[in-house]
Amino acid sequence: MQVKPLKIAAMTLALMTPALSAQAERYAFITHAVDGDEWWQTMRNAADLAAQQMGVEVQHFNPTNGSLDEMAAILNAVADGGFAGVVTTLPDAQKLSESVVGIQENGSDVIVVNSGTVAQADALGAVMYVGQPDYDAAFAAGQRARADGVDSFLCVNDRPEVPAARERCLGFADGLGLDLAGRELRLSDASDAASIAQRLADDGEAEAVFTLGATAAQSALQALANMPADRTIYHATFDLDEVVVQAIQDGRTAFAIDQQQFLQGYMPIVVFANLHRYGVLPANDIDSGPGFVTRETLGLIASHAGTLR
């Protein structure tokens, strides 16, 4: 199931429709998700579950191809939509900050989720931040890989235009005690398994592949499946889906960093509903991760992979 692409003009008209003019308990949920990336569907499902349980309305929006310019246009359109609150990712604070501030100036509260940092959310006046610190999570992953004997690596960066993506590669390198220079493969398409395979063939010393999301993980696993039989390459990744869960079960992936996107979708809607009904708000931001999923810890996670995990 895909997140529906946004048509800016159509959305603007819909937001101005009198039937949707009542602000109370209407929330917009905006991400930088690319259409077809199933990892984000878990976040959307969680937000919808919270909306059902809390008895509120949530509308979802995302840029069709992950364009940050299109995302800024979405935020600007939503600012005039009369929402009580807006939940948004913040993949590039510099590019999106003006739009986020504009939402608040029009009377809507903002919660930042998933990307960006607590400091950036605070600077923009957001109610709170729900997510995981990308660099810290990747650093811990690098330390874990180092303990497993990894001495060299390739980081597959499938979102090079997003600053947080490079923070993930940098954190992993630092956790291993290695320099990132020369060890980052930048892709414009996360499904480009051929480029990963070619880079690994050219770099015969890479002992590990680190991917920044579930779609890129699938591509890496495809590339690794075609490696020569005498070459074993360690794989670790951010994020889970059904393919990554199966790879962990099979021993092809050492671990996945679980930022628990369920909480990133669920908690903002619950927080907003209680804030606007009762004026209550948690005193702290919410760290949804990182957690580390291994073969030993899969358990209940496997049964919900791709839907709520």
Describe the largest sheet: 6 strands, parallel
CATH superfamily of the largest domain: Response regulator
Q: Can you tell me the CATH architecture of the largest domain?
A: 3-Layer(aba) Sandwich
Number of helices: 12
Runs in which pLDDT lies below 50 for 5 or more consecutive residues are: 1-22
- Given helix and strand content, the structural type is alpha/beta
Q: What is the number of independent domains?
A: 2
What would the principal axes of the Cα set say about the shape?
A: elongated
Order of helices and strands: HEHEHEHEHEHEHEHEHEHEHEEH
Question: In angstroms, what separates the terminal alpha carbons?
Answer: 15 Å
Residues in helices, as a percent range? 40-55%
Cα radius of gyration in angstroms: 20 Å
Strand order of the largest sheet: 2-1-3-4-5-11
Protein name: Periplasmic binding protein domain-containing protein
GO cellular component, one term: outer membrane-bounded periplasmic space
Keywords: Signal
Subcellular location: Periplasm
Describe the structure concisely for a colleague.
Helices cover 44% and strands 16% of the residues. It is built from twelve helices and twelve strands. The chain is elongated.
